[in-house]
UniProtKB/TrEMBL annotation:
<keyword id="KW-0067">ATP-binding</keyword>
<dbReference type="InterPro" id="IPR003593">
    <property type="entry name" value="AAA+_ATPase"/>
</dbReference>
<dbReference type="InterPro" id="IPR017871">
    <property type="entry name" value="ABC_transporter-like_CS"/>
</dbReference>
<dbReference type="Pfam" id="PF00005">
    <property type="entry name" value="ABC_tran"/>
</dbReference>
<keyword id="KW-0813">Transport</keyword>
<dbReference type="InterPro" id="IPR027417">
    <property type="entry name" value="P-loop_NTPase"/>
</dbReference>
<dbReference type="GO" id="GO:0015419">
    <property type="term" value="F:ABC-type sulfate transporter activity"/>
</dbReference>
<keyword id="KW-0764">Sulfate transport</keyword>
<dbReference type="GO" id="GO:0005524">
    <property type="term" value="F:ATP binding"/>
</dbReference>
<protein>
    <submittedName>
        <fullName>Sulfate ABC transporter ATP-binding protein</fullName>
    </submittedName>
</protein>
<dbReference type="InterPro" id="IPR005666">
    <property type="entry name" value="Sulph_transpt1"/>
</dbReference>
<dbReference type="InterPro" id="IPR050093">
    <property type="entry name" value="ABC_SmlMolc_Importer"/>
</dbReference>
<dbReference type="InterPro" id="IPR003439">
    <property type="entry name" value="ABC_transporter-like_ATP-bd"/>
</dbReference>
<dbReference type="GO" id="GO:0043190">
    <property type="term" value="C:ATP-binding cassette (ABC) transporter complex"/>
</dbReference>
<dbReference type="GO" id="GO:0016887">
    <property type="term" value="F:ATP hydrolysis activity"/>
</dbReference>
<feature type="domain" description="ABC transporter">
    <location>
        <begin position="3"/>
        <end position="237"/>
    </location>
</feature>
<keyword id="KW-1278">Translocase</keyword>
Amino acid sequence: MSIEVRNIYKTFGSFVALDNISLEFPTGGLAALLGPSGCGKTTLLRIIAGLEVADRGAVLLGGEDVSDIHVRERRVGFVFQHYALFRHMTVFENVAFALRVKPRRLRPSDAAIQARVRELLELVQLEWLADRFPSQLSGGQRQRVALARALAAEPRVLLLDEPFGALDAKVRKELRRWLRRLHDELRVTSIFVTHDQEEALEIADRVVVMNRGRVEQAGAPREVVESPATPFVADFLDLDDHGPAWLVQAKIRHRGYVLPPADNLEATRHEDCPFELPTPSLAPVARPAGIERTA
Ligand SMILES: Nc1ncnc2c1ncn2[C@@H]1O[C@H](COP(=O)(O)OP(=O)(O)OP(=O)(O)O)[C@@H](O)[C@H]1O
């Protein structure tokens, strides 16, 4: 289901948190809201969810204006950075919760709930932990349970606010790739919030760069990296860390280097290169002798 926001304006007192935001998120996409702390990412996500009300503007799900529809009726799934699981419930019961609290006439039978929860736990690869309690899980496992729980309600769209923000870098990297694969399988229109450029560029198919309550640029990762629309975007995407192969190559081009032809590429390290090169498993990088300065 598509998501659209039209002319969203939101203030907190005299502070303008969102200043006339209009965006479209096509059905089945995985989009990232990217920007520095305080730029309005979470506020926009909460308005889409129905957890926050905009002063002006509209939210449309599948073309239908849901601005006045209560969060419960929007059928939106959320996963937050610190979205606490119910501590006194097992993993299984946490995931089953959304099904058990449905009104009686919509509630699946016990057998159907069992089957659905097993299926979801299998999807997030945690069926072997069904009987554990949240305190017996790692942070990454907890977030996967939170995702399974969000999916249990069969959301029409999925909103994730820094879902892996509290995890260490390695787990975070693994989980974001896993999320991408899961999304490829499910194709539920999803938006996630992050302040991590690499995370957004690596897994999203559309990146919205925000700054001070405004959209600076929205486009495919390659587009925002290769053709930043504003100085802010160029500056914000100037990554210290390496990213995927095409991103590293784009960075090389932007810094005044010309890449040698592809068959001349090999994984190596070059003293002149202004940033750390990726490991061979991540990407091919330029052979030292093949790199020419353009300026
Ligand atoms: N309930 C509130 N009352 C007053 N100001 C708020 C409230 N919620 C958010 N803000 C302000 O609105 C701005 C946008 O906040 P928001 O949480 O959307 O930013 P963000 O981009 O998600 O930041 P972060 O990456 O730090 O989570 C911030 O300056 C914040 O202080």
